[in-house]
Amino acid sequence: MTRALLQRHVEEAESRIQRGQRNVDHQRKGVSDLERDNDDATIAKRLLTMLEKALVIHIADREPADQTAGATAALTC
What we know:
The protein is an all-alpha fold. The chain has helices at about 5-35, 40-75.
């Protein structure tokens, strides 16, 4: 795999993480708003849990790409 392709994979993984974090933050605010207004937040909390799990997966997926890109960069120096 070329260095440029590895870098693209790392950038895409980082983009997914950033997007996932924004989704989690938005959902947390929604849960907070529902609870503040004494509305049922059950479904919103379930969605928040799913989003948090997806974010963890995205972060874990980024790690091997970062390591591979770093190793490739070291070899080309």
